[in-house]
Amino acid sequence: MLVDEQETLYQAMGGADTINKLVEAFYPKVYADPDLSPLFSDGVESIMYKQRLFLTQFTGGPSLYSEQYGPPQMRMRHLPFEITPRRAIAWLRCMREAMDDIGFTGEARELLYERLTQVAGIMVNAE
User: Fold this and answer.
1) Most CB atoms closer than 10 Å: which of 84, 97, 107, 123?
2) How many domains, in total, are found in the chain?
3) CA–CA gap between residue 121 and residue 20 (Å, rounded)
4) Residue 4 lies in a domain
């Protein structure tokens, strides 16, 4: 539970500023990871832009992703890619390291990481 029950995760984590920092710290790690980099053939700017929109909406901020791309339906959108348990763990590791790099700590970090762990598990579609 967040300190203020009226506050969204988006607000508790610092809104767009924190999301931007997190995305900026996250993608260099993804592209450097040998398990993850093959999944990201599109331009990094496009992927980072979509991730910013998604994380904003995912954390209770404005519905930016849905406004531009429709309902997130992340599992469906990721079905063309082979997402193994190993890749899900690597993705979470990169996110955790990015959180460390930007100094994102506390209850909001724990809640976001817990929710992202659930999402990573749902995305697995291959052994």
Assistant:
1) 123
2) 1
3) 24
4) no
* Distance of alpha carbon 60 from alpha carbon 81, whole angstroms: 27
Provide CB contacts within 8 A for 126, sequence distance 6+.
82, 83, 84
Q: Print the SS3 string covering 34-92.
A: CCCHHHCCCCHHHHHHHHHHHHHHHCCCCCHHHHHHCCCCHHHHHCCCCCCHHHHHHHH
Domain hosting residue 21, numbered range: 9-123
Residue 3 maps to a domain: no
Q: Which amino acid is at 13?
A: M
Tokens describing residue 110: 């724990």
User: What are the pLDDT digits (tens) for 56-102?
Assistant: 999 999 999 999 999 999 889 888 889 999 999 999 999 999 999 99
DSSP class of residue 8 equals -
Question: Is residue 112 assigned to a domain?
Answer: yes
In a domain, 2, yes or no: no
